[in-house]
Structure formats: structure tokens, C-alpha cells
Design brief:
The protein contains 5 helices and 2 strands, in the order H-E-H-H-E-H-H. By secondary structure, it is mainly alpha-helical. It has a two-stranded antiparallel sheet with strand order 1-2. It is globular, with a radius of gyration of 16 Å. The mean pLDDT is 85.
Length: 102
């Protein structure tokens, strides 16, 4: 990432009065996803959507605000994330749909 992009992200954080790290609810809101969607996104290693540190499964999750804003401004990442969530819900529906008996 170049210095101009970094400066733009930092300016955006200052305008929004964002701290250096945001919790899961704040990250979801910035990205336009639900809190449940974030859990799905964290499970997909290809998206690199991982919380800061190594929190326990039941611990609160925090994300770098600058990275969340980068993802929010990246159409390719948002497309991949949206497809990941769509596929998850499709597979879930298929698992629980009644199988027709002939």
C-alpha cells in the first residue's frame, strides 16, 4: 500500500472518529454485513478476515480499523466476501432441505 492510500485511510478514520481497533459490531457496520456474517467471513481463510491477536473462541473480537476500511473500499474483496456468505447460506439450505422420497 502506498503512502497516499495510507493517508486517505487515516483521514477517513479521523473524520469518522474511529479508534485504531474496532469491535465486531463496528466492523460489521463499516463493511455493510451483519454480525452473523462476520463469523462466516472469519471462517474463510482466503479472505484473511482475522481478528487482532489470538482471541479465544468466546472472547470479544477486535479488528484494525484501517484494515476494515481498506476492505470496505475494495470491490474485489467485498465481492469475494459476499459470495462466501451466499455460498454458506446456500449450503446450509441444502443441508436442511427435506429430501424428496420417491
Amino acid at each position: 500500500m502506498n503512502d497516499e492510500n495510507t493517508n486517505n485511510i487515516l483521514e477517513s478514520m479521523a473524520i469518522r472518529q474511529l479508534p485504531g481497533r474496532v469491535n465486531a459490531e463496528q466492523a460489521a457496520k463499516l463493511l455493510g454485513f451483519t454480525l452473523d456474517d462476520l463469523t462466516i467471513l472469519m471462517g474463510d481463510a482466503k479472505l484473511a478476515f482475522t481478528p487482532l491477536g489470538k482471541p479465544a473462541p468466546n472472547a470479544p473480537k477486535f479488528f484494525a480499523a484501517a484494515q476494515v476500511l481498506r476492505w470496505a473500499g475494495d470491490p474485489d474483496w467485498l465481492d469475494k466476501a459476499t459470495n462466501t456468505i451466499r455460498k454458506h447460506h446456500l449450503e446450509k439450505r441444502q443441508r436442511y432441505s427435506p429430501v424428496s422420497q420417491n
